[in-house]
Structure formats: structure tokens, C-alpha cells
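User: Could you check the structure of this?
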Amino acid sequence: MIAIELMETATSAAHTLSALASTPLAEPAPKGIDTEGVVTFFASKIAPILLAVLGVIFIGRASRGEISKVLTSSAIAIVGLAFIAGAATLFFIGDYLIDLIFE
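Assistant: Sure, the predicted C-alpha cells are below.
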């Protein structure tokens, strides 16, 4: 009788241990900053808001007759966007050249 109870306890303990062993452990916390996510967030959320604010400022200045200031600011904004686009293009071209050289 004692042997049967001992055997049932051992069997239930074995089932519990096998169930614990089969449960997945929690994934470790990330160790770095997700820079790609940060850039995507800024590009999709912050940049359109800033461009809309610039548009409102330009429209407000144009309605007051400050056309020369609006044209100057618009030209500066366009040149700035061209520099940003050029930097992104050079980044991809540089990455391509490095891959081409070190293949």
C-alpha cells in the first residue's frame, strides 16, 4: 500500500517536472536601442507634423505680404531636404561600394 502511494506521488512529480520543462522561458530583455524603430517613428510621426507647422508659418507670412521671406524660407527648407536626401543616398551608395569591394 505504501509502495503504491509512493509510486503515484513519484509519477505525479515526474509529470509536473515534465510540464515545467516544456514551458518556454521568458525571452531576455533587449540589450540595445532599436535605432531602426526610432528612425521609423520620427519619419512617420514627427516629420509630417513639423512639415505641417512649417506650411502654416509660410502661409501666415504670405498672407501678411512677406513673400520674400516665404520664398527664402522655402528655398532653405528645400535645400535642407536635398541635403538629407543626398546623405541618405550616399549612405546606401557607400554600403553598396563596401559590399562590392569586400566580397
